[in-house]
Amino acid sequence: MNAESLVNIILTISAILMIWGLLRHRQKNRLLQILDNDDYSGMARDPDSLMFTDENAMEQFDRLLVNQGADMDE
Description:
Layout: H1 3-36, H2 55-67
């Protein structure tokens, strides 16, 4: 076995190990994301506060409407 063949074998094995490590890392991250999302219920923290508007929110909403070209008189 010459040196070129030996280098090719070593590089092939190292490439396979790197790909395996990346796939394992990706799978672990996906499992962690799935486990972290179990706590999310989708419900508002304080749904009663959504029934009332504050002045700051209305001013920001007005600015958004103006920036989008909405006419207030319509």
